[in-house]
Each structure stands twice: as structure tokens, then as C-alpha cells.
Amino acid sequence: MTGKDVERLAQLCEKGTRFLASLKDILGLFAPPPAPLDQDPWRILGVNPEDPPELVKAVYRAKSKVLHPDAKGTGNADAFKRMRDAYEEIQRQRAAEGERHQTKKGGEP
Fold it and tell me: Three-class SS of residue 35?
């Protein structure tokens, strides 16, 4: 392999690297954003799936008072929204679970 061959190979590698980088950027436009590391709604809210609904609601309300954006000194809009979304997801999961149990028992969903 001559010096020109090595130089040409380096140029091709450079072009290939730039092509892959631009392809990655283009595909990134169509891909969903990466999920946060801690997206489990139970962990976000700080409760367990086995906890009764009353406890989950109490924890949600207590944290809401602290994290609400209007709370003096402790308000955090991003954390409040994340916690609220987690609570709503837990409610959806429990509602879906309840519908599955009704269907298994012969009731209407």
C-alpha cells in the first residue's frame, strides 16, 4: 500500500464518518426522544404497586403541596409536572387492571 492509498483510505473514512454522523442526525429527527432513566411512575411518586390507592393519593397530595409551582420556596414546576404525570399513569394502570379483573369475572369492562 502506497502513501497515496493510505491518504485515499483516510479520506474515505473521513467521508464515511461524516455520512454516518449526518445519517444519525437525520434519523434522530424521526426517532422518539430517549426515555429518562427513571421513568417508572411508582418510583417517581415514591410508592409501591402493592400500596393501597388511599396511600398513593395521600403521598401525591403531600408532594403536590410541596412541589406546586405556587408553593413558596419549594415550588418546582418540572418536578411537579413529572410527579403529576406519574400519578396519572398510575391511575391509568390501576383502571386498566380493574377492567381486566372485571372481564375475567364475567362482568362488563
Answer: coil
87-94: average pLDDT: 92
Give the right CATH number for 41-105 from 3.40.50.170, 1.10.10.10, 3.30.930.10, 1.10.287.110: 1.10.287.110
Q: In degrees rounded to 5, what are phi and psi of residue 38?
A: -115, 80
For the ranges 19-33, 78-92, 93-107, the lowest mean pLDDT is seen at: 19-33
Could you give phi then psi for residue 99, rounded to 5 degrees?
A: -65, -40
Closest by CA to 56, choosing from 78, 82, 79, 89, is: 89
Cell reading at 34: 430517549
pLDDT at residue 35 tops 70 = no
Q: Is the pLDDT of residue 43 over 70?
A: yes
Burial label for 56, CB within 10 Å (0-12, 13-18, 19+), is: buried
